[in-house]
């Protein structure tokens, strides 16, 4: 007869716990699911933040690359590109969100006619029609050559423009009313000296000043000046000729002489009116200026003596330069 095996006490103690093992309760499963949900939610929010940060960084790099492209263009062509040629000038005309970069520039730095381009179209200038005001940090930057702007992650441009004066400034890629917010998607221009109020905490802005642009272009001695250091002396009632020569600027030179008195028998070409008002202009109207590439003094000077004069020159961009001289007439 077959005998049944009865497990001893030790085997019973080993098997029993295995048979009585409990699984997760519904409460425990609910807690686990809540924790998993929180982790997934936190991860999703972090992904959004990280994605936005990456796009901001990429957009800043895009604006920096566009800035370098504009500087290279200016160095090679002696002017800035217009809004119409901006897209083909830069490598990427859009930010990381696929929106067009806004390009603002001083039109005086963009010559429409290639024949009018010279090295001094940019190098000869001292001022621009653009002034930038930033809120973060608070600062005012005058004489800005161009501004590049991305609307940022919120697709809303907080940067505003204010206008005054009479100089025309190009505002390509934007539509603007005095004191209003820049609007995307259109092209317009506004009259006046433009003040850009850049809220850099939201918008992504890159700007280049005229001095920075001139430096990167390698401009040397482009600002307007008079190259003469002295006036040759003359002799009493002896034929005399002296010439004053400008350098730099943007051409279209006009001359002016400030002096209480010049020797009798001396005339200027072009003919300019003499003015003296404690060393400053007595009259700055065009009628007191004479247009010519150089200024000459000629004639038969008399009487002998020393005569103080200040020669001033300005170009067609409003840049000016002056230099004091002493004109000595020796006796025979």
- Unreliable stretches (pLDDT < 50, length at least 5) are 165-169, 175-181, 183-189, 277-283
The fraction of residues in strands falls at: 25-35%
Q: Using the alpha-carbon principal axes, give the shape.
A: rod-shaped
Number of helices: 5
In the residues, how many domains can be counted?
Answer: 2
The radius of gyration is 37 Å
Q: Which helices and strands appear, and what pairs or packs with what?
A:
Elements lengths: L8 H11 L6 H52 L5 H7 L12 E4 L14 H4 L6 E6 L2 E13 L9 E13 L1 E2 L7 E2 L3 E11 L5 E6 H8 L7 E2 L7 E2 L4 E5 L1 E2 L6 E5 L5 E6 L4 E2 L14 E2 L3 E8 L2 E10 L5 E11 L2
Parallel strand pairs: 2-7, 10-19, 13-15
Antiparallel strand pairs: 1-3, 1-4, 2-3, 3-8, 4-7, 5-6, 9-12, 11-17, 13-16, 13-18, 14-17, 18-19
What's this model, at a glance?
With about 325 residues, this protein is α+β, with helices and mostly antiparallel strands.
Notable traits:
Immunoglobulin-like, six-stranded mixed sheet, five-stranded mixed barrel, 19 strands, single chain, 332 residues
Describe what you observe in this structure.
This protein has two domains: 53-217, no CATH class; 225-330, Immunoglobulins (Immunoglobulin-like), CATH 2.60.40. It is built from five helices and 19 strands. The longest helix has 52 residues, at 26-77. Strand 2 (130-135) and strand 3 (138-150) form a beta hairpin. With 332 residues, it is of the alpha+beta class. It has helices spanning 9-19, 26-77, 83-89, 120-123, 210-217; strands spanning 102-105, 130-135, 138-150, 160-172, 174-175, 183-184, 188-198, 204-209, 225-226, 234-235, 240-244, 246-247, 254-258, 264-269, 274-275, 290-291, 295-302, 305-314, 320-330. It is rod-shaped. Strands 10, 13, 15, 16, 18 and 19 form a six-stranded mixed sheet that branches.
